[in-house]
Amino acid sequence: MRLPAPGQKEDRAEVLLRAAIKKEVVDGDLKAAIAQYEKIVAAYGRNRAAVAKALVQIGQCQEKLGNAEARKACERVVREYGDQAEAVSFARERLASIPRKGEPPAAKPRLRLAMAAFPLVGFGLAPDGEHVAYSERKEGKWGIWISDFAGFETRWVTTGRGPAWSPDGKHLAFMRMDEASKANLLWIISLSDGAERQLTKVHSQSPVWSPDGNHLAFFGARDPDEEGGTLYMVRAAGGEPRLVTKAWPTHGAQWSPDSTRITYTHADEHGNRDA
Fold it and tell me: Which end of the chain is less packed: N or C, by CB atoms within 10 Å?
């Protein structure tokens, strides 16, 4: 039997932790995620950072399920993992909002937490109501990030800006500048495996998913600095964009609940707008 190299088991804990977070955030299977987190806690005690984070995630999952065990997981972090400052801080924060047995549920100041946690540039709320995607410019380049409302679990997704969640929460549509043409092109990324797909070849902006998740409406502009543009739609699976209207400029696309119609506003040469 070959023994693992020093640190190998701890590295494995980080891999399993990321898989469990995917199970929780992307798949939405909270019970399966809890089982995976509990395995990390049981098997990787030497990696205190990973175990503390796993316990915090257990508490978060249990809280979403409305289980009393949510307090127990967070209390254990505070009691046994004082050296893990970030995890302890988050656990204390959750304990302040998780009611004790017999107490009424506490109100969740989600928006306040989000505003304090990160810069809301290109902000997009996830369908699960627990996460946000946003874009931030660092060292001259735009990147897209996903965070929970407390900012405890934040991860880089890809380069680009203006993220828009798919209705099932499994994909993000976004714009990325093409270095050759300097146009912002429309892309989609899968949050489960990171696979990306380019949808347009002309300057695109303001993508809006159809409620059924099959199409995106967007505005095709003649140049990157132009506000509004011509309204198009494209299949999320790929294909040639389809012109919706020749009216220009158009703004504010919204889908009907059954995904069969798109409303928009059109401004004439005098600035008057009609829907």
Answer: N
Q: What is the reported pTM?
A: 0.56
How far is Cα 207 from Cα 219, in angstroms, rounded to an integer? 7
pLDDT digits (tens, 9 = 90+) for 224-236: 555 557 888 999 9
- What is the pLDDT at residue 6? 39
| In contact, 165 and 146? CB cutoff 8 Å | no
pLDDT at 212 over 90: yes
Q: Where are the alpha helices (DSSP H) in the chain?
A: 8-25, 30-43, 48-65, 69-80, 85-97, 110-117
Class of domain 8-97: mainly alpha
Q: What CATH number matches the domain at 115-274, 1.10.10.10, 3.60.110.10, 1.10.510.10, 2.120.10.30? A: 2.120.10.30
Q: Cα–Cα distance between 9 and 123 in angstroms, integer?
A: 37
